[in-house]
Amino acid sequence: MAAVFLGIALLATAALVWPGIYFTLRGFRALDRPKPEVKPRQDAATAAHLKQFFVGKQCATCGRPIPPVHAGELRPGLLNASAQEAIAWDDVLAANLAATLETHVAICSNCLIIGTLRQKHPDRVVDRHRTIESPSH
To answer: Would you say the pTM of this structure is higher than 0.85?
Structure first.
C-alpha cells in the first residue's frame, strides 16, 4: 500500500514540476532568437498611388511591360538610376512618395529581385550582357 502512495506522490510531483521546466526552457530558447524586424505598413493611399504609377510602365532594366499589381503577387519596384539602387514596393515611404517617384524609374519584380541581390551580395553576382531578345527571366 505504501508503494502505491509513493507512486502516486511521484506522479503528482512530476505532473506539477514538468510544466514549469518545459516553460522555463521554452522561454530561454525564445531569448536566443533574434527579434523579427517590423516594418511600418503602407497606408491605402500610398499603395493606390503606387499602383497608379506602375500602370502602363515598362521596366527600365529589361524593357518588358510591368503587369498590373494584384494582391498576393510579386510587386514591382523602383530603381534610382544614378546610384543603381533598387527599392522594394514596401520600402517606399508615404512622406517621400512624390520625391521618390520623380527621381526613380519603374522596374519589374524580377529585376527588383536581381537588383536587391546585387546590392546585398555584390560578390556573388556575375553581370552578363542581356538584351530584350534573350532576356534572363
So the answer is: no
